[in-house]
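Quick one from the shared queue. A colleague (R.T.) flagged Fe2OG dioxygenase domain-containing protein as missing a structural entry in our internal table.

Convert sequence to structure tokens.
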Amino acid sequence: MGFEVSDSEEVNTERERELKAFDDTKAGVKGLVDHGITKIPRVFHHPPDEHVKVSNSGSTAESIPVLDLAEVDKDPSLRQGVIDRIREASEKWGFFQVVNHGIPVTVLEDLKDGVLRFYEQDTEVKKDLYTRDQMRPFVYNSNFDINTSPALNWRDTFVCCLAPNPPKPEDLPEVCRDILLEYGTHVMKLGIAVFELLSEALGLDPNHLKDMGCAEGLLSLGHYYPACPEPELTLGTTKHSDNCFLTVLLQDHIGGLQVLYQNTWIDVAPEPGALVVNIGDVLQVMTNDRFKSVEHRVLANLIGPRISVACFFSKGVRSSEKLYGPIKELLSEDNPPKYREFTVKEYVHYYMDKGLDGISALHHFRI
């Protein structure tokens, strides 16, 4: 008795072969570009986003707020103005940019250069670091969700955990080691300052979010988005929200980051010297939906490479058994909890296993 193989099984087997062949090169998307491809492989083809009915792509009618942190610790009236703006930005957009944040522009430029240096090393040098083992101190690969996402993203990524246990310098690539560690120190300071402002914006003590452990862990992701020969067929990063408390993002001058606001994709235009800050899923849960963890994406681009560095304030998969849920002080009879409690580890595992499929992981934890 023979068994017939269905068309869908054949397609799946072919797709698995293509994914394995791509992963086995250990050269990422950059490897495809280095080979001079003019047509992108099918596994990178994204279907149009059906969920965004009105997609005025690249709308500039609205733009995310830019907050000036220059005198925020010295002038109480200025501080109150920033708190009011950060509250409004967090409730309405879930995103804002910060300027005069205290991190020297030279550090930002050195970091972008360091990430670029890493990716532009000889492929044979990088192959030794290419891994799917999330527990390594430095993880470099392409598409963490290669086997679960409906389509691959046009980007390569490295991840390292900078806090609470910074890696040994020898565990990081020499070409970007010093600047990664230096930047981590700066971002930790900035993150604590932003958590204080967010705490006050919620009507809580300035140290409330810090004391809950929001600023204990820091993950740094260095993204490399090569120029794409067919950018209309794929994405740099699929629509998603972040699985952390807070994200601080450094993007270069090329652009491509978009935020989903009122069913419209809005460009987050690069501002010289600015950093993009956005609320993560876990902080949306803690504020019982008051602050929004908003979906965003990155377009593929004819020009490149685009460099960005995202720092996630999160304990990630190495986190403790501490439970997070809506903050008790923010709840009332009129505002009951909308989420069950969970550990950050549980949330991150669910998020990573699910992959960037365009559906928010928050739904899984709603009451």
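The CA atoms of residues 193 and 206 lie 9 Å apart.
Residues 177-201 form the longest helix (25 residues).
Added to the table.
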